[in-house]
Anaphase-promoting complex subunit 4
Amino acid sequence: MPAFRQVGEKQLPNPVLCMAWSPKRDLIALANTAGELLLHRLANFQRVWSLPPNENTGKEITALAWRPDGKILAFSLGDTKLVVLCDAEKAEILHLFPLENPVSCMHWMEVLEESSVLNSFYTSEDESNLFLPKLPTLPKSEEKSDEILNLLGEVRLNILVLGGGSGFVELYAYGMYKIATLPGVPGTCSSLCLSSDLKSLSIITEIRSADNDPEICYIQLDTGLLSDCLPEVTRMARKFTHISTLLQYLRLSLTCMCEAWEDILMQMDLRLTKFVQEKNTSTQVQDEFLELLLWGQSSPELQALLMNQLTVKGLKKLGQSIETSYSSIQKLVISHLQSGSEALLYHLSEVKGMSLWKQKFQPLGLDSAAIEDAITAVGSFTLKANELLQVIDKSMKNFKAFFRWLYVAMLRMSEEHVPPELNKMTQKDIAFVADFLSEHFSENEELFDRKGKYFNVERVGQYLKDEDEDLVSPPNTKGNQWLKFLQESTHLKESPLLFPSYSQKSLHFVKRMMEGVIELCLQKPAEVIGKSVKQAVCLPLYTVPESSENTPRLFELPSLYNDKKTNMHYGVFCMPEISPCKLYLLRKFTDPFRPVPNGLMAIDLSNVLSHSIDDDAAGASSDCVYSCQDARFYDDETLTVVLRASEEENRGRVLAQLPLGSALSCEEEFNWDPSLRLDQQSGAIPVKGLVLENQWRDLENMKAQFVAVNGIRKVACVLSSNLRHVRVYEMDVEDEEDEERPESQNASSDQDGLEETPAIRGEAEGGETEGGGQRAKEQLESGEALELS
């Protein structure tokens, strides 16, 4: 009876570049060469959703990582140098951020350290809910909904580690806030592992030189500052993540406001501009409208403008559009921008308080002056939002009175009946319209003559334009008693207690300025923490022949693992050019200055299956010598490997579980010569032989090459050498040979070297992609009880 139960199989239309199991559910994420991100369920390898490539994000996925709670999936894009955080339930992009270098590998870990200080912070972290109202939900029509708030996740610290070329390594707390930029890492990172106690970071790098083949090295960095200041790091990172989330919330709120502002609101300005350009009279537009207001008479040009171009029906529609649009924008400013700004001020003020506790937070680089600048910038943004509210309120009153009068005038021109309720116009109403004409039209005619621009009767849209230019029509501050008092007061004029208002700039401009100041405030801790990280270990392992560079780097050994119970870093790798039948195991304590006994050993795989099967099979396998194709840590004591027989024509590939207990008990010590690479002294490495009993199975009709595992969920996914053929297994259940296999398994023959047939391609592409986010949600919820058991 074969070990491990096969539960799904699929021939995929595009080669797979990355695969990663969810830490909490029986779900696996795949990225392919077409730029798609796919999520599949364990059972029958059923597709839950697919995220197609996007021009705004990119098409070249280079790495994948799950947040430890399994709710967020991170992936990096090489062509656009972006990292994207995606909602695992809805395939919705929640957040993205740019990087200076493309990412080649990523690792998302969770801190498991416990302390009374941390526990008190975990329980009190939601204190802000006592002082701040809950942020309103963004309009459902907006593509990115209020799911952005889910980015915060659990309070316990988790860190997304990113690595790339030219020594690029960065750490992001909660996947959003850059907590460290690590300088001085040589080569290109191919694998990363940050220990759960935050004491060290293990890195596998590939160092290239002009003369020699690329050299694979193991590097261990001392991240002791993060470990020593864990409560402070957690508190600071959580606050800055709140701030990053709120900035994203304000960004989306402003996007909703821009969508609420319609182009139809520009019609009045465009019509007036055209009227000025085409009119033959020397009179100004203001005079034309004043004559109509006072005498009820208009020039033929104005009458043609009103009756032929604007029309009675068009004026009515324009008035309704302005009222609807302004009301929507007004609600968004009051409910979203103001509440978001208040929350931002609250969290920045708390960070400022932390920065003044120099004994605790100064080593982390918190700068109170930079935080004060950020608070001032948020205050300026709040002032600008309030200014927009005043402009909207005034514009709504002005337009209502102006359109009411103009509507009656146009009805009279067309000799239509004027409703009695509209026919009455007091002297006060006439004065109000005259003031509106005087304020909006005379300025704009001068502006048109001076800059060649159109009329700007509509005053709200200029605040929503993402431009560096000054406002075309800034608010009139003449007669403002407060501003007059400030100008005359020598003490208050330059007071740091007052937020600058930037009256000439748009809301978008002030928002960008605020983001820039906050970004500067966030950068300092990342630089200080990054400079504190020092290289503790650098071990050159072996060289990679240029001929092997066609293999996707994402699947290549070495692979890294952190044993949280014993606080050990593990690395597993092969040196096929030196010893093709050996698998090497490197281990280091997470404390880089603590020596480890038996730090390096080799596992002999040549006869690993010799005595583990019945008589008939024994004859076939006793002469087989196995080499390792891929190896991944299943748990602290087990390694999952894909083995390949030296005589391929007699025997296929094998999936096996290697128990590491006996290998780790090896008492023989290896004395590493630091002047030589490991492959140059491999003969002295202690070797331990292993013989498996029943923890293996043949991978029939499949040229298996790579494997991804999840020891918590007890599952594995095997990928073929052509990167298109996948099989998934439950690793703790034996397969019954007589059991009826799913259709997908019966339909699979050895097609690894062939193109997929239309039927298989249809199965891979069709039937599972329909239904969108709702179906994905239903599928995820339907298996919740089983998955979380």
